[in-house]
Amino acid sequence: FTCGVEGSHDLTVADKTAQSLGLKLAARVVARDEVPQMALSAASSLFFFDKMQLGIGLPLFGACQEASKKGFRVVFSGQGSDEVFCGYSYYLKALQENGFPGVEKEIVSSLGRMWHRDLFRDDALSMASSVELRLPFLDTGFLKSALAVPASEKIKSATDSLRKHPVRKIGEKLGLSEEIVLRPKKAMQYGSGFASALEKLF
Predict the structure, then answer these.
(1) Which of 24, 95, 104, 178 is most deeply buried (CB count within 10 A of its CB)?
(2) What is the value of pTM for the model shown?
(3) Could you tell me where the DSSP H helices lie in the chain?
(4) How many Å apart are CA 100 and CA 155, to the nearest integer?
């Protein structure tokens, strides 16, 4: 399941990836004139207003609506992989300023911060569609193994534009194409097209 504004980067990539893997893709394609009502509905589920959090949450909100419509009540989410495997660009700064020990510290700090922000947001938005999220990357058994992987294997240097190398290596071993494995991260609010749509509203 995926969701994005019509013509967005993420919808194109999701469709191409699903086809290459022989997977069925259920895409919620949102017309630009639908965004105001969708944003209002999502914001009422969040109990707070934050334009950035709304932009990040709307793709999940739409994907969960689509999943619910098709009768699914429990879905997997990739939440947590960027925290554990240094997917965010702020890990570059941590490495530049404090070396790999600083990156290790930032990983733990980032995981601690996500409970009251990302997980609250995603839980509220998924439950609005009566869908429960399961988060494999935050499973305690998996986390113990993932946190034992040295930061130097997750991020190579302070100019590493890819990062998340263990996940990419697993994808490569599973036979995913180089195009998928080496695709740079694009923040969900931008790739989905919701950030630009919200800019015109607020």
Answers:
(1) 95
(2) 0.94
(3) 9-21, 35-46, 51-69, 81-84, 90-113, 118-127, 140-148, 165-173, 178-181, 188-191, 194-199
(4) 9
Strands of 115-188, DSSP E = 132-134
The percent helix, strand, coil of the chain (3-state, each to 5) is 60, 5, 30
The sign of the CA dihedral 9, 71, 134, 182 is: negative
Evaluate whether 91 touches 98 at the Cβ level (below 8 Å): no
Maximum alpha-carbon separation in the chain: 48
Residue type, 80: G
Question: pLDDT tens for residues 35-94?
Answer: 999 999 999 998 777 889 999 999 999 999 999 999 999 999 999 999 999 999 999 999
Q: From CA 82, how far away is CA 113, in angstroms rounded?
A: 13
Distance CA 26, CA 158 (A): 37
The CB-side HSE value for 18 (13 A sphere, CA atoms) comes to: 13
Q: Which two tokens stand for residue 176?
A: 């995913």
Q: Give the H or E element holding residue 74.
A: strand 74-76
In this structure, the chain runs to a length of: 202
Find all residues with CB under 8 Å of 150, minimum gap 6, and list them: 100
